[in-house]
Amino acid sequence: MLDTAKDKVTEHELRFERLLDAPVTTVWQYLVDPELRGRWFMGGAIDQRPGGEMQLIMAHDDLSDNDVPTPEKYAPYIGRSWTERIVDIRPPHLLVITWDDGASGEVTIELSDIGDRTRLVLTHRGIPGRDGAINFGAGWHSHLAALDARLRGDGVPDFWALHAESEKAIAEALG
């Protein structure tokens, strides 16, 4: 689950590092192309410039390849749409966005070339406490697992099972 040598989980900051089996340009497309982003995270239009908006549409019921039910606590959020602000963007290596208009911090995604692979580092700073860290940590951890699977050409049979495992791992890491 968590790689404690590379991943950092605190009540106010999360850092996840992944080595992905795709070149940086491909991974970048999975960050900025609304359709590709919707396969592992949340789709939506994006204005790729500092100050631009990134729309996020929560369609997590579409992230699983199999027909699996959405957990009751997340069902009310399915279909919800909102926008975040792009703080910095330097294709194809850096994307920084606000979260909850900055109330829940800022998310930085850095991509580095490692031969024909990509090192992705996602850092979410400014999280307002333990509950937020568990919520965001479980989300980022499971979404990155889905991204990794999609880039490898593997399926994501049950996103919600990934999410439940991630939620448990993050809660344990926080102690």
Descriptive notes:
InterPro entries: ASHA1/2-like_C, START-like_dom_sf. Residues 21-151 form the Activator of Hsp90 ATPase homologue 1/2-like C-terminal domain. Belongs to the AHA1 family. It is a single chain. A 7-stranded antiparallel β-sheet has the order 1-2-7-6-5-4-3. Helix 1 (24-32) crosses helix 2 (34-40). The protein is globular, with a radius of gyration of 15 Å. It has a single domain (8-174), classed as START domain (Alpha-D-Glucose-1,6-Bisphosphate, Chain A, domain 4), CATH 3.30.530.20. The protein has 175 residues and is of the alpha+beta class. It has helices spanning 24-32, 34-40, 130-152, 159-174, and strands at 8-9, 13-20, 53-57, 81-90, 94-98, 106-114, 117-125. 31% of the residues lie in helices and 27% in strands. The protein is built from 4 helices and 7 strands; from the N terminus they run ββααβββββαα. The longest helix is centred in the C-terminal third of the chain and has 23 residues, at 130-152. A hairpin with a 2-residue loop joins strand 6 and strand 7.
Taking pLDDT < 50 over at least 5 consecutive residues as the criterion, the unreliable ranges are none
- Percentage of residues in DSSP E strands: 25-35%
Coarse structural class: alpha+beta
Overall mean pLDDT stands at 96
Overall shape: it is globular
And the CATH topology? Alpha-D-Glucose-1,6-Bisphosphate, Chain A, domain 4
Q: Report, as a whole number of angstroms, the end-to-end distance.
A: 16 Å
Number of strands: 7
- How many H/I helical runs? 4
Query: What is the CATH architecture term?
Result: 2-Layer Sandwich
CATH superfamily: START domain
User: What's the CATH class label?
Assistant: Alpha Beta
Largest sheet: 7 strands, antiparallel
Order of helices and strands: EEHHEEEEEHH
Order of strands, main sheet, comes to 1-2-7-6-5-4-3
Helix content: 25-40%
Protein name: ATPase
Domain Activator of Hsp90 ATPase homologue 1/2-like C-terminal: 21-151
Family: Belongs to the AHA1 family.
Pfam families: AHSA1
